[in-house]
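Lab meeting prep.
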Amino acid sequence: METTEVDSELSLFKYGNLEALPSDYRGLSEEERTQRIAAARETLGDDVLVLGHNYQRREIVEHADYIGDSYQLSEHAADSDAEHVVFCGVTFMAESADLLTDADQTVYLPSMEASCPMAGMAEALQVDSAWERITDAVDGDAIPVTYMNSYADLKAFCAEHGGLVCTSSNADDAFEWALDRGETVVFLPDKHLGRNTANAMGLGDATVEFDPWADESSGDLGDADVVLWDGYCQVHERFTAEHVADARDAHPDATVVVHPECRPEVVAAADETGSTATIRRTVEEAGPDETVVVGTEIHLVNHLDRWHETDVVALCGDACMDCNAMRQVDPNYLTWILEELAAGREHNVVSVDPGVAASAETALDRMLEL
């Protein structure tokens, strides 16, 4: 298959779009897009797999073979025999799919602009620069644990320093694994998921935040069982305890479920907390006369309300925002990628450097062994 001259090295696609969308794709109507995507998919047949993250807009997920969270989708890619995997998500997700798929499978990201801000808050070079400062200050061995929402080179860094990867569903298991091997967990990049996990494990009083930009911490690192890197999801940090209180006033009998990337006070005020899979399951198990108030990215809330008879309400109402990174995967980009693949041309290939991949896979393997 012909490949364009785009250099898809890991270090490049983090920082910007390497190819602009051709002008003749920019004004497509939804009807025209739908017809052209269907035609391209018919040409490609089983050779292509389209993955749609929960946070993608309707015009994307309706064309996806699977809809789910980042790691679920990477597992679907690994289980597939498709030669081409089009990942409608953000860069770190496409990287994970590349790590898990076979050598004869190629992963594509429709738009290289789709780069998660939270993952960018803990670049491997930045973490490496701060690592000596942290490890010199903590008492005993420090074990790094990175959330799945991070770049492959940070996953590799964690493996090389005795650590592993976790998801929002198994962060507590990862913390226990790390504490069995050292005195301190250094959790990256999401401080809210880290603190919520530490609180649930009774470690809240022994948790300290580290601000890499100011090179300072919220307390004595030497007293910490858990050090939290100062990163966060811009969508989930917007939710407040006041939003929960307002939702309860408006919907007294509703179940409030929020993502663990939310602030601890929001998690404490909610009825349930869990990953996007947990949130989806909560709605699926609710009755048609029930109301579920959901604190997560607005597109998933809208999908759930559309897919189920249950009344699904966004936690912060009209103030809720979508994920700006996910928004970069415009359906016109999906049309372009698929039509070019059908014509034998590749764009926006995501390929993790083999040296980085080997260590990153070790971090993932340690998680799977949990």
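Slide two material, second protein:
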Amino acid sequence: MIRTTTVAVLAVDSVVALDLGTPAQVLGTARDTDGRPLYTVDVCTPGGRPVRSTAGFQVLPEHGLDLLDRADLVVVPGVHAGPALTEGVVEPEIRDALRRAHDRGSRIMSICTGSFLLAAAGLLDGRPATTHWAYADRFRRFHPRVRLDPDVLFVDDGDVLSSAGVAAGLDLCLHVIRADHGSEVANRAARSCVVPPWREGGQAQYIDRPLPPGGDAGTARTREWIQQRLHEPPTLAQMAAHASMSVRTFTRRFREETGLSPAQWLLRQRTDHARLLLETTDLGVDQVARRSGFGTAAALRQQLHQRIGVAPTAYRRTFRGVPA
């Protein structure tokens, strides 16, 4: 019998509504092969008092902070106001409850700006973490001892995890399910929530960076052109020539617009196309490899194993034959 993981979601004033609902929606969807829930999710607040959400409603919890004393996993959603975000500090009762839970062996996880509360409680000092890219500079000012990486979707540092903004909480919840119970369970949960089982790349691709003036001089048309040629991907020089740029300018503009180098982006596109072919066609692995630009089945197997930890045939078995 698989033990059910107890999850406590800690809500404070100005809690981000989507972040608050994500753990219950995603973790609560995970089931074993007999349909039994693998996680139970409850919400708590300081003193069990109502708190305001960012969506214009109040949260009426059923638990106080004592819920953290018996939870296996504690999730701290993001906030849009309060001392953690404006001063870099957290109320003593919240700080102490988070520390007790961590010292007792609970995993602690933040979504979006919930990382400000973890950092203010001292749980991130000297550790890698992330937060919403728009708050990265403020986070560094308040918490210089944290090894902040604002370019990733989430960070798993074992007993302490953190995710980037908003939808990245979905990615981290699915990652937790995958780590706890395997890809098949996580993929079923993702399908139930109508979200991808994983997203490639980091939040760098979503950062608002003003592009230099140039009208149609961006790389979007070249990216479309490349996607039509994944079976025989062009060289970097050919990409730059198509965009009417030097290789150096093209590489810089490409990274500004996608958050990735051309080579990284191309590899992701080829891998995604191979996954699509494995999911939706009966083509052999050799054919899938050729059509997605890997050339050989061995190269495709190596890349899939590097990226998602499974072989092409195993990936196909996971995704084929699943009812809509």
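Talking points for slide two:
The longest strand covers residues 5-10.
The chain is about 45% helix and 10% strand.
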